[in-house]
Amino acid sequence: MAHKKKLQVFVSSTYTDLHEERQAAVEAILMAGHIPAGMELFAAGDQSQMSVIKRWINESDVYLLILGGRYGSIEPESGKSYIHLEYEYAVAKDKPFFAVVIEEDHLEEKVKRVGSSVLEKENPQKLREFRTQVLSKIVRPWRDPRDIKLAIMETMSEFSRRDDLIGWIPGSEEVNTGAVAEEIARLGKENAELRFQVAAKSTDSTTYNGLTFEKMYKILTDEETNLSEYDAEVIETVNEVAQVFGDSKPGLLHLFWLLGFRFNQNRTYSISRGGPEYKTILALVDFGLVEGSELSGFHPTEAGRQLLLRLRLERETKKARQVVKRLPF
After folding, report:
1. CB neighbourhood size of 21 (10 A)
2. Which of 292, 212, 295 is nearest to 259 (CA)?
3. Residue 209 — left, alpha, or beta (φ > 0 → left; ψ -120 to 50 → alpha)?
4. Contact 229, 280 (CB under 8 A)
5. pLDDT in tens, 248-270
């Protein structure tokens, strides 16, 4: 029997002009058996809340936009309204979404009924551009809160049948934990086999300046480094890396692995002459893993990049990544 999953729906709209419509949306979502969430949870216009709102959109299963006659509060940095930013973020994240857009003649009727407060006065051009952007995708028009309710009931019925939307499942629902455990075990075994195949292929065909991975690893591990010239924080970190990698003592290899994060995707690394780190860089240059100069900066060679990738495949662990978080250089 299918689980009675509840989908979380993030409701995005301007606020002061759409109280009745938002209430209708919330009621429809609840009537359909799902969970509403939205911007009334946050302080409007507070830039620090955008990260929280993004997290709520990420954690929601569906994004709903109710577009009326106002553009909304402006986020200073982008110059766009908060609902505009929410919409673009949801679309960029491929979040399942739908939009209900007010019909223009109904907006005119609403102005006659409640006044011009429902119209955008400060940024009408931005509203037109945003409305055009939204209308470029499939939307549902609305003239009345009942239209919004109907659109939600019909659309959520479709979304609830989608297997890719996990939603929330009541704790009382029986879950076949045995089948789940078997699937996890199968995937784990498949992953291990693929990693082994990649490693085996790499071992058979890849060399680093003429040396196999095992030989280069041993040479760099055995290569002594004068860690005493580094400060205590660096020494502690390098020793931890060696332990995590399962090596008895720290060597040039462990410094190279740490420096790999400093190079940060092949960007050059400028360093002045004379210090312990400069000596480490020169040693790596001798092994053909780093190239460059004081003027142009240093960066990994192709062999160096490949070796760093191999180290991350075979040696890097969650614990190793934690060491990097307090990388001292």
Report:
1. 23
2. 292
3. left
4. no
5. 888 898 888 888 777 754 456 66
Burial of 177 (0-12, 13-18, 19+ CB in 10 A): exposed
Per-residue tokens: 71? 């553009």
Burial class (CB in 10 A: 0-12, 13-18, 19+), 325: exposed
Quickly state the pLDDT bin for 34 (edges 50, 70, 90). Answer: very high
Q: Could you give the CA distance from residue 168 to residue 90 in angstroms, rounded to a whole number?
A: 20
Q: How would residue 7 be classed by pLDDT, with cut points 50, 70 and 90?
A: very high
Indicate the pairing of strand 290-293 with strand 297-300: antiparallel
Provide the b/e sequence for 50-66 (b: ≥16 CB within 10 Å): beebeebbeebbbbbbb
Phi and psi, residue 109, nearest 5°: -65, -40
Q: How many residues does the chain have?
A: 329
What the block records as the tokens of 276 is 């312990």
Q: 1 falls in which pLDDT band (50, 70, 90)?
A: very low
213-222 helix and 252-263 helix, angle to the nearest 10 degrees:
110
